Amino acid sequence: xxxxxxxxxxxxxxxxIVSRDLRFLNRLCDRMQRLQxxxxxxxxxxxxxxxxxxxxxxxxxxxxxxxxxxxx
Length: 72
Prior knowledge:
The protein is mostly helical.
């Protein structure tokens, strides 16, 4: 099923779940940066990658919840 088949309510619920996890990863990456993890550290790199992917998922869930005005 393509994402265009999601109802506004389903996409909004998905975005809410992703938002919670994204906030956690944002805080985690901020802490790791404050603690001066090296950019090449595997744990820091994985946390950053996970945050970036969740950010992309959050944006796509947002667009899926919009029924007009998003320029697709």
